[in-house]
Amino acid sequence: MQHLSQSHADKAESGKNSLSGLPKNLAKVTRKSLRLTEHNITQRLDSPKIHPTSLIHPFAKISSSVQIGPFCFIGPNVSIDSHIIISGHTKIGSNCTIHPHSVLGGPSQAIADSDSSFLTIGDYCTIREHVTINLGTEATSIGNNCLIMANVHVAHDCHVGDNVILVNGVLLAGHVEVGKGAIISGEYAFLGAKTVASRDVLPFSMVKGYRGRTVGVNVVGLRRRGWGEEERIKRVEKGVVRGGK
Questions:
Q1: Is 157 a known active-site residue?
Q2: Sign, Cα dihedral of 217, 223, 228, 232
Q3: From edge to edge, which strands make up the β-sheet containing 205-208?
Q4: Which of 101, 174, 175, 209 is catalytic?
Q5: Is 57 a residue of the active site?
Q6: Residue 156 a catalytic site member
Q7: Per the residue annotation, which of 122, 143, 156, 239 is the catalytic one?
Q8: In CATH, what is the architecture of 55-181?
């Protein structure tokens, strides 16, 4: 656009351009039309591409390079940064922040998918750079107050609970369920770096290693929730011994 603006400016200032032979009043109108045309082109290029069937809250902030497909909903006080694609019946709750180069609501990588699938992202979520969250055969959901760090992939039909943190590079395969307050697994559970969990992780537990071995209780996580020692014991007993009942 800089070259286009300079070109028009040169033509306006030069007495030897193609408008110089026109009557004075007509030349003024023509130059004004050129400026309006340039303004309209610039405005279109600097505006996000939003499908007319999508609903965007007036208090949402959307960068110019964002693409929003059909039947999406963007809630109030949502901030969507540059080069983000949102599609596929995606609903984003209030006060969320989406960082650059993420793709939300893209088609499933599974062989079977469904046109009726949708993605729901709760309130107060932060999604960092290069995150992909896919649709599925039914629904994919992210709870409230979640932090999804850079380069995370959430596959089709996953359900992530409230207050979950997915650290850099986490990959969730299809149909994975992540409990509230967890890092990848059961409620208030903790997985160490490079841990491989091939089966369910107990609530309130700490799991480490290639084989995903349980090494203890996530005491720090329980304490951070503001629970006293007696309450922590009761919660662990309920989650581990009685299966959460």
A1: yes
A2: negative
A3: 190-191, 205-208, 213-217
A4: 174
A5: no
A6: yes
A7: 156
A8: 3 Solenoid (2.160)
